[in-house]
Amino acid sequence: MPGTLRTARPRAQLRQGRNDWYRISNNAGTGPAVVHIYDEIGYWGVTAADFVRDLAGVRASEIELHLNSPGGEIFDGIAIMNALRSHPATVTTYVDSLAASIASVIAMGGDRVVMAPNSQMMIHEASSIEIGNAADMRKMADLLDLQSDNIASVYAAKAGGDVAEWRARMTAETWYTAEEAVVAGLADEVSSVHSITEANSPQDLSWDLSIFNYAGRDAAPNPLDALGRSPTAEPEPADAVQDEAPAAEPPAAEQPAEAEPLEPLIALTPEPDPWADMVAHFAAAPADPWAALTAHFATPTSPERGDQSKEDA
């Protein structure tokens, strides 16, 4: 059994009971037509079929759309936004108090979006209640992702950025003050004077916002903090940053001089010279025959040899 697709979780109940869900006045074309959506979108509140039928009867050239709604049905809200965009009149959206969930998408149907002082806007992911098996749950999860991408594209078309950036803000459930909505690009200005008059203002409504992750902007993180950036962070002064001198590189160690290779001490044997051998006897001193004959006289006779001579005599 498929669940009802919504951007609010359970219904954001009125503490004072339900009031008229919308009202269109001065639609005869004699001045701006004034439209109030001061209820939940869908269920027993504003439905697309009722709203689109009555909006089609407006002949005025200008429409002032006043919003104070906690959100509701996705498909009804998108149908209302598209009906406003396709109307030939110039539409100005006034967020009188709260434009949360799918009501923030309806606000994008105006040619201009004006935030009243102290008003708020909230964006978050689509959610649903589903009953069924695992396949039913997976199918619903895919449908929720598809619708969240669709809603994110509406914010991106108004404020700039891409779908992924706005999905991140939606996942964080981001609340904006009037001024923050202008800075984010979701609104064009904050009105200096509240646009609601006593004659055309519906009964004041008080919403029970406890069904959301945060019960209003005061309880929610700063819109920039939701994306991990702090709006109060200031860059460090330039003179406070000291340029550190690069660490001196240690001197390169001196490499020992390479010793010259010692020549091997090798005893060289001269190569034989056959010619020198042949003439060597010519260079030798001539033999002395007389010296050879008298050599024994120059040799002393040993005593033993002398004694032996006497005996022999």
From TrEMBL:
GO terms for biological process: protein quality control for misfolded or incompletely synthesized proteins. Belongs to the peptidase S14 family. Residues 304-313 have a biased composition (Basic and acidic residues). It holds the Pfam family CLP_protease. It comes from the Bacteria. One of its GO terms (cellular component) is endopeptidase Clp complex. The keyword Protein biosynthesis does not apply. PANTHER family: ATP-DEPENDENT CLP PROTEASE PROTEOLYTIC SUBUNIT. The keyword Membrane does not apply. Residues 233-272 have a biased composition (Low complexity). Keywords: Cytoplasm, Hydrolase, Protease, Serine protease. GO terms for molecular function: ATP-dependent peptidase activity; ATPase binding; serine-type endopeptidase activity. This is ATP-dependent Clp protease proteolytic subunit. Residues 222-272, 293-313 are annotated as: Disordered.
